[in-house]
Amino acid sequence: MFLFGILLSLFPKTLPDAAVRKMVANEKRRLTGAEPEKEHEKPSFKDMIATFRRLLTNKPYMSIQISHIIYIFGYMPYWIFMPKYIETQYRRSASFSSLITG
């Protein structure tokens, strides 16, 4: 984990293209006399609702989420009945099979 932390610290704080775009946008605002864009706005409940709505209408995101749910529901019987399977198939105790499956 320490090694990955060192590798991640080598990345730049901002990417060069993003910094150039930000400088150009600030220069345009300065020349037109417009107000500078606020850096950080406080999050609000209205923003959260808008974000959830945007996520729920995102078809690729929702299809991936539904596929994950179906995948988990498919494996639930396997996880639930695995201790009993170990008990009967390998003739182990209930405590041992529960220990193995977690």
From TrEMBL:
Residue spans crossing the bilayer: 61-81
GO molecular function: sodium-independent organic anion transmembrane transporter activity
Coiled coil residues, start to end: none
Any single GO CC term annotated in Swiss-Prot or TrEMBL for this entry: basolateral plasma membrane
Pfam (any one): OATP
Biological process terms in GO annotation: sodium-independent organic anion transport
Alphabetized InterPro entries for the sequence: MFS_trans_sf, OATP
Keywords assigned by UniProt, alphabetized: Disulfide bond, Membrane, Signal, Transmembrane, Transmembrane helix
Keyword RNA-binding: no
Domain of life: Eukaryota
Signal peptide: 1-16
Xref: PANTHER family: ORGANIC ANION TRANSPORTER, SOLUTE CARRIER ORGANIC ANION TRANSPORTER FAMILY MEMBER
UniProt protein name: Uncharacterized protein
Record organism: Timema shepardi (Walking stick)
